[in-house]
Design a protein that fits this description.
By secondary structure, the chain is an alpha/beta fold. The chain is built from seven helices and ten strands. Strands 1, 2, 3, 4, 5, 6, 7, 8, 9 and 10 form a ten-stranded mixed β-sheet that branches. Helix 2 packs parallel to helix 6 (about 205-215) and helix 3 (about 145-155) crosses helix 7. It is globular and about 50 Å long. The two termini are about 25 Å apart.
Length: about 250
């Protein structure tokens, strides 16, 4: 039995931050960080309509294979991503795929054959998820979502690695650790992630995985290296279509 958070609404009866109502959100939601990327992803939906735009959270809803599917931006970092997931869940969302960009860490991640990486789990090197559960609890992607992403990429001829992401809170801690008083520690961690074969560095996947798991939902993540590319969006869309089909077959049993 999962634990659900308290619903917080604004004066219009909408979810307090993302400003959507029940019935406006599909069970399946794609989660870019950047509001601008919601526009790009929404183009791949049938009959997409802008539902809400408040702060960093922009939401479109359309259809795939006749099923309502939404795209909502989380903003940057764990706190806004956690708020976004909590409120989407209250609005009826059940399955999430984070679609974003990431940096490279280990040597293998620099292989130019990769469009990006399917994130199988995340290092909780951030501060949001410890407000939910102790650090020993792992941030793991849902296996069904992960498999759908892998199959979608393979069937479309795209090349995505699979691996672990380091989820952090400080962009400049990565790119300019010498400017930080504890830069020596940041660089030491970075070397550890490299030696351990960590494939990506980004800022939201751990939060997405943890919140979804605790609330009894499922989540996965697909990251493009450095810059968003169409192959990443098409792979995520294909994965949602696979999950819709699998869920329908399961419900018919």
């Amino acid at each position: 039995m999962s634990i659900q958070s308290k619903e917080v609404l604004n004066e219009k009866g909408q979810q307090y931050h993302i400003c959507v109502e029940k019935g406006q959100i599909g069970k399946y939601v794609l989660l870019p960080g950047d509001p601008g990327r919601t526009d790009l992803i929404a183009r791949f939906l049938d009959n997409p309509k802008l539902v809400a735009y408040n702060r960093e959270h922009k939401t479109w809803t359309g259809y795939l294979d006749g099923e309502m599917v939404s795209v909502t931006s989380t903003g940057m970092g764990g706190p806004s991503a956690a708020i976004c997931l909590e409120e989407l869940i209250h609005a009826g969302a059940e399955t999430f795929i984070r679609v974003g960009t990431c940096g490279r860490i280990c040597e293998e991640s620099y292989n130019k054959k990769y469009d990006g990486v399917v994130i199988t789990g995340a290092i909780r090197h951030e501060g949001t998820t410890v407000q939910y559960i102790p650090i020993e609890y792992p941030a793991i992607a849902d296996r069904h979502v992960t498999e759908a992403l892998v199959q979608s990429a393979r069937e479309q001829g795209f090349c995505f690695a699979e691996g672990i992401a380091q989820c952090k809170d400080s962009f400049y801690g990565q790119h300019d650790p010498d400017s930080m008083p504890n830069g020596f520690m940041l660089k030491s961690y970075w070397e550890a992630w490299k030696k351990a074969g960590v494939m990506a560095s980004e800022m939201e996947s751990a939060t997405v995985f943890i919140v979804a798991a605790i609330r009894g939902k499922r989540a996965g993540a697909l990251m493009a290296y450095e810059h968003m590319n169409e192959n990443t969006i098409k792979t995520a869309i294909g994965a949602i279509e696979k999950l819709i089909k699998a869920d329908r077959m399961q419900s018919e049993k």
